Amino acid sequence: TNGGLCCRQQFYIDFRLIGWNDWIIAPAGYYGNYCEGSCPAYMAGVPGSASSFHTAVVNQYRMRGISPGSVNSCCIPTKLSTMSMLYFDDEYNIVKRDVPNM
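Structure tokens predicted for Activin beta-B-1 subunit (102 residues):
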């Protein structure tokens, strides 16, 4: 047991479930994971200090009421990775982009 302290929970983000599969070609989703538990002040991140694509995706899950557990901002990750994506832009061109901090 971690004594109720913040720890990582596995969470698969499925773009189909949030209606983004009409513009995202690949991947179909990714493991976005989240933190759960209490975070002492010295461990907690500052909410809203860093906007990212991952934050936007998790917020889409929250708005649709399909987020697991209590997906709240608490501890911050120690490592983030870049994810390659293929998607349609506004003019229906296929774009490959490496999205940082996922």
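The longest helix spans residues 53-63.
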